[in-house]
Write a structure and sequence with these properties.
Layout (H helix, E strand, L loop, with lengths): L1 E5 L6 H12 L2 E4 H11 L2 H11 L6 H14 L6 E4 L5 H12 L7 E6 L2 H9 L1 E4 L5 E3 L19 E2 L6 H15 L3 H6 L3 E5 L4 H14 L1
Parallel strand pairs: 1-3, 1-4, 2-3, 4-8
Antiparallel strand pairs: 5-6, 5-7
Helix pairs in contact: 2-3, 2-4, 4-5, 6-7
The structure holds zinc ion.
Length: about 220
């Protein structure tokens, strides 16, 4: 089973990918991680990528394709892949299809964790933590029993992450839409796109993903 997992920051993609890895022994193939690992390991593709990056240039699709090919070849028999952050463009989507086909594999599902942007803004901008013990709270969903006092340690100081603000969340959503816009229609046309409500409880999201994987 090979899938692409899509979702904007805050949709819980990392958690769901981790669960797929744990439950199904799948391998998460994130291009950034693959690139760093290949450079570090000094593989032929890694050396090529290193030279390109040192020259201040972007790593070409050709190099990324070679990296993905290497990673797929390194999978155990029957081990599935979760593509993360790739493909981003129509030509990359086409390459991925070819890379898989040349190994007798197919892309089974493209699963998008769908979010309601306004609800996501509320979820992210409302969160804060106790400055002393780190317990997490939320303005709407999880207030301390006594306002201004941490339930766990009795502390009175709380902090918010500077990037948990509306502008950042909306900018990230726009970036996400721009990144996925070129590839979603391609996979829609193939009938392999499924959407899961990323605003639901994490376990419910996992169950919905499992149901999609079982449909094959
Ligand atoms: Zn505390």
């Amino acid at each position: 089973m090979n899938i692409i997992l899509l979702g904007p920051p805050g949709a819980g993609k990392g958690t769901q990918a981790q669960r797929l890895v744990e439950r199904h022994g799948m391998k998460q193939l994130s291009t950034g991680d693959m690139l760093r690992a290949a450079v570090k390991a000094g593989t032929p593709v890694g050396l090529k990528a290193k030279a390109v990056m040192e020259a201040g240039q972007l790593v070409s699709d050709e190099i990324v394709s070679a990296l993905i090919g290497d990673e797929l070849d390194a999978l155990a028999a029957g081990q599935g892949a979760i593509f993360d952050g790739y493909p981003r463009t129509a030509p990359q989507a086409e390459s991925l299809g070819e890379i898989l086909a040349s190994r007798g594999k197919v892309l089974d599902h493209v699963i998008e964790l769908d979010v309601n942007e306004d609800a996501l803004v509320e979820r992210i901008t409302g969160r804060y933590t106790c400055a002393t013990c780190g317990k997490g709270y939320h303005d709407t969903f999880e207030k301390p029993a006594v306002e201004g006092t941490c339930d766990k340690c009795g502390g009175h100081e709380f902090k918010r992450r500077p990037d948990d603000n509306e502008e950042t969340v909306r900018t990230r959503m726009a970036e996400y839409r721009a990144k996925t816009a070129p590839i979603l229609p391609i996979y829609e046309a193939q009938g392999i796109v499924s959407r899961v409500n990323g605003m639901a409880d994490m376990d419910d999201v996992t169950a919905a993903i499992e149901a999609i994987l079982g449909k094959r």
